[in-house]
Structures are given as C-alpha cells and as structure tokens.
Amino acid sequence: MTTPTPTGESVVPTDVDTSEAPTGLPDAPTLERWATEFLRWFPHGAGAQQLAAPVSARSPAGLPSWLEGTNLAQAGRETLTAAALVRPPLPMVPARALPAVPVQVGVPAAADQPFFYFVDEPGRTLAEARHPAFDVHSVRRDFPILQTRVHGRPLIWFDNAATTQKPQVVIERLNHFYRHENSNVHRAAHELAARATDAYEGARRVAQSFLGAASPEEIIFVRGATEGINLVAQSWGRQHVKEGDEIIISHLEHHANIVPWQMLANERRACLKVVPVDSSGQLRLDELQRLLTDRTKIVSIAHVSNALGTITAVSEIVEMAHRAGARVLIDGAQSVSHLPVSVQAIDADFYVFSGHKIFAPTGIGVLYGKRAILEDMPPWQGGGSMIADVTIEKTTYQVPPARFEAGTGSIADAAALGTALEYVQRLGLQNIERYEHDLLTYATQRLLTVPGLTIVGTAAEKASVLSLVIAGVDTTGLGSALNQHGIAVRASHHCAQPILRRFGHEATLRASLAFYNTRDEVDTFVAVLQQITATARRT
Predict the structure, then answer these.
(1) Per-residue pLDDT at 11
(2) 284/338 Cα distance (integer angstroms)
(3) How many other CB atoms are there within 10 angstroms of residue 281's CB atom?
(4) Are the CB atoms for 228 and 365 separated by under 8 Å?
(5) CB 92 within 8 A of CB 109
(6) 302: which DSSP letter?
(7) Could you tell me the sign of the dihedral formed by the alpha carbons of 294, 296, 302, 303, in that order?
(8) Phi, psi (deg, nearest 5) at residue 347
(9) Mean pLDDT, to the nearest integer, of 421-427?
C-alpha cells in the first residue's frame, strides 16, 4: 500500500513487511484492517466468521476465502469497489498503480458517528461535517452497468422506479454464495448448510434493522411487494373480511395494490372503497376520514406513488385507520430506496417492499408484519419448511416467519438483499434523501423550460419521480427517441392506470431518479427533449 506524503510523494511504509504479499494484492496488515472494518459495520453479515479468523488461518494469499477471485482484491482505483463494504483508513493500491496525490488520512469517528466513504472534504471527518458531502461520482463507480454505452452513448438510467441497478458489492455477494455457500437452509448437519443458513438469517436481521422492526420474526421473505400484498390479502384477508365489510385503497395505487383487494372483495362480497386525490396528486385525507366506518377492515396505501412520486402521509393515515379499528398495509416498494423508514414509528401493521427496487436482485422482497398479527394468521401456501409436524390426518404449522415461507426460498438473493440494504445504510438514507431532493428540484426546473411539457403530479411532498407529457408528441415514440440517445425512461401506464386516467392520460413518460444520477444527465435529458420537440414542431 502507499501513503501519500504532504508533498504528494508516495512511499511504501518501512514498518510493514510486504515481502510475502502477492503482487497486486493488499498485504496482511491491510487485510486485517479490512476485516476489522467489515466486522464493525456488518457483524452479522455473510463472511463475518471467515473474516474474524487470523490471516494465518486463511488462504495462502492472505485473503479471506470469500474475497478470493473477486474484484475486491484487485489493485487500482477503478477496481477498488470495496468501498461499499469497507472503508480502509489508507488507499489500498501499490505505489506504481496510481500517480501520487495528497490524501487526507481520516481517523475513525466515534462509534455513533460512522464514516461514509463519500465524505471527501479535506481536513474534515464526518463528525465535523454537519452535512457530509455526497460524492456522486465515487458512488457511480460502485455500479458497473453505469459504464455501459447504448447506441454509442453513455447509458443514462432514468428508469429506477421500474428497477434499480446493482452495485458491485451485491454482484460479488451473489457470486460468493454460489462459489462458497450454496446449500439449502436449516435442518442439515453439514458446513455449507450452516453457511447458507447464516447468510439467509443474517439477511433477515439486516432487514429487521433496516425497517426498524421489533424482531427478526416479523420479517418474511417473499418474491417482492406483489407477493407480500397477496399473502396478506389471502391469509389475513380471508380470515377477517366478511360479507359487507370494507377495504380501502387509494387512487394512487400500483395495480399490485388494487387487484388482490378486488379479488378478495369479489370473493367475500365486501366493498372496495377508493380515496381520491387532489389536483396535485396528493391524497385527500378528509375523504379518507369520510370513508372510514366500523365496517372497514383494512386500509392499503402506497407510501410513494410509482406513477407520480407523491409521498403520502402514512403516519397520519395509520392513526386515522387505527382509530376506526382497521388494520393498515403500506406498500413501500417506491419509498425504501429514497426515505428513512421505521415501521414502529409509523405503526404500520404490514409493510412490503421489493429488493430489486433497492439495488438488490429480482425475485426477493420483504413483508413486515406485527408479530401478534402474524401469529394469528393461517398459512397461505403449504409445503416444506412451513410445517412443524405432518401426519396423513393432520398438519401443524411453524410459527412465523417460517409459517409463510413454504418451500425453498431465494436464498442467494436474500443474502444479496442484505448486502444491498447494508450498502444503502452505509450511504445513509438521510444523505440520499437530501441529494435526491436537490436533484429532483433541479430536474423539475429544467424540464419546465421544454415547450409544451406538462408534469403530471405536482404534490408538495414528492420522491424522485417525474411523470410528464409533451403536447403534440406521442409518448411511446418519445421514449423510443430517447433510447437512441442512451436515455432509459419508461413510457407506459406504469401499472397504475387509475391514477393516470384521473389526470386524463393513458400513458406518460416517466423519468425516475436515484442517488447515482447527476445534474449532467438531467441536462442531457432536457437537451434531447428540446431537440425532439423542436423537430416535432417543424413537421
């Protein structure tokens, strides 16, 4: 490793023996610092036990086995994506790899004041910075796909509400699982099963911490938010909703938070009520209050609208529903990557989100439920893992969460979800929220300079979604034209037809932002829109 001097000259420290270090790999003391930092941040994460072992107990190269063969071990600034896992106090590169540059060597902050690797203010630690700098360019290096070119142009990924891109650390986590841990979980007596179980249950504890749940038993792994909502509708709903009872949703909802409740209402002969929105796209809480009665059994509402970006007043909604004796499910698919969430502070009875909307793989998500409610719910699906005892005559069921996780789950994807949530936690959701708010404000102002452009959904509280139409320009054609410039947006009804029709549209163009997007990308997007509209006016 190198230590830049105040003059910028890189020298190899004389007190570190690097004679045994493999070419291009960090030395043993450096690895120990990596391990210490990793354990500090992720004491329950996969690989923690391996990292806790002394270097002498690891591979001949000095690497923990789960890091062998990964990009995390390679030298050079562009391949050191380990910043998402660990923040070493010194740069981990050979003296020959990079030109000498002065670096402010940080000192660890207090235990309650963690480092964020994007803090890069010379002479200042996070403890000294009231609002730490968010280095979006450092963050972007964590996402390999952002280096992709589309039609010869740099990819601009503005389709984050549909799915997010994956940081290298998540990709490596999947790779490591299938190389070193692949097994089914629970009940086996061999080492790989123990490793896989540790990874799976460790991810559950990470999700508990991320959502602020009271216990890991309140976290159920599902395929995504859609499956989580269906589970509640088919298990809790069939148990509690009777003929003449009421279910309340809103005009803002994704189809995944409409169709399951329609199905339940039709089956149980219940009444489905809808909370309207005002002209800005915000929920009418006065109308919610009017709709609530003693027959209301559940209120199911999006935390953030996927079509408009509206942030709803979930705490107030929960309080109103609870006063009426109703349960509340919050669809957090579009909120967890943008806003800090505490399910206990919100007091939600159920909360769902999808992993792929928060930088994790597809096919994995979380249903949170209050423990007492889950324990009273019957299973939704039957099979292995969810049973306590089976005879030909009778089956008894496990307690939650196992009761609702029939069959083999997406084990590797769950482990990678845990890594993705830890990555977001390290960035800090308050920092993400502040950065994205500023970017959304900038993008909104710039878009309003495009002739004929209307933004659909202008609520005062919004997340990073911009839904728009341009007079005289076909929305689908507009999306295709943007694609030719490397700009990925969604041009459709966004699986939210009721809210678009409320504003008189069958489709909009949706640009949805994440913390790795930049003002330069916004400027490119706006310039292309202006070019397209100018061409449309001439023809």
Answers:
(1) 36
(2) 23
(3) 23
(4) yes
(5) no
(6) E
(7) positive
(8) 70, 30
(9) 96
For residue 277, give Cα distances in angstroms to 130, 251, 283, 293, 499: 37, 7, 4, 20, 9
3 state SS of 415: helix
Residue 13 binned pLDDT confidence (cut-offs 50, 70, 90): very low
More confident position, 40 or 151: 151
- Cβ proximity of 450 and 526 under 8 Å: yes
Max CA pair span of the chain? 80
* Rounded-to-integer distance, Cα 217 and Cα 99, Å: 51
What distance in Å separates the CA atoms of residue 382 and residue 370, rounded to the nearest whole number?
22
Which helix (DSSP H) or strand (DSSP E) does residue 268 occupy?
helix 259-268
In this predicted structure, what is the pLDDT of residue 29?
Answer: 55
Distance CA 401, CA 465 (A): 33
Grouping H, G, I as helix, E, B as strand and the rest as coil, residue 64 is coil
Q: List Cβ neighbours of 323 (8 Å cut-off, separation of 6 or more).
A: 292
Q: pTM of this prediction?
A: 0.77
Work out the number of other CB atoms within 10 angstroms of the CB of residue 438: 12
The arithmetic mean of pLDDT across residues 54-58, rounded, is 39
Predicted local confidence at residue 31, as pLDDT: 54
According to DSSP, residue 451 is labeled T
The band of 187, judged by pLDDT with boundaries at 50, 70 and 90, is confident
Cβ atoms of 188 and 199 within 8 Å: the answer is no
Number of other residues whose CB lies within 10 A of the CB of residue 252: 29
Tell me how far apart the alpha carbons of residues 509 and 491 are, in angstroms, rounded to a whole number.
Answer: 4
Q: Where are the beta strands (DSSP E) in 334-472?
A: 350-354, 365-369, 387-390, 395-397, 453-456, 465-470
Strand partners, 219: 368
Range name among 73-77, 134-138, 192-196, 271-275 with the lowest pLDDT average: 73-77
Q: Classify residue 332 as exposed, middle or buried by CB count within 10 Å of its CB (0-12, 13-18, 19+).
A: buried
Contact 381, 360 (CB under 8 A): no
Length of the chain measured in residues: 539
Catalytic residue numbers, as ranges? 495
List of residues 6+ apart from 413 with CB closer than 8 A: 174, 355, 360, 361, 362, 363, 364
Strand 271-275 relative to strand 246-250: parallel, antiparallel, unpaired? parallel
Query: Which of 219, 194, 521 is CA-nearest to residue 374?
Result: 219
Distance CA 401, CA 220 (A): 5
Residue-wise pLDDT tens digits, 356-389: 999 999 999 999 999 999 999 999 999 999 999 9
Instruction: Give the three-class secondary structure for 226.
Output: helix
Strand 387-390 vs strand 395-397: parallel, antiparallel, or unpaired? antiparallel
d(CA 503, CA 148): 36
* Listed range (54-58, 159-163, 491-495) with the worst mean pLDDT: 54-58
Confirm if 385 and 398 have CB atoms less than 8 A apart. yes
pLDDT for 55: 39
Q: Are 10 and 97 in contact (CB under 8 A)?
A: no
Average pLDDT over residues 305-316: 98
Look-up of token digits 């994440």: 514
The single-letter code of the amino acid at 55 is: V
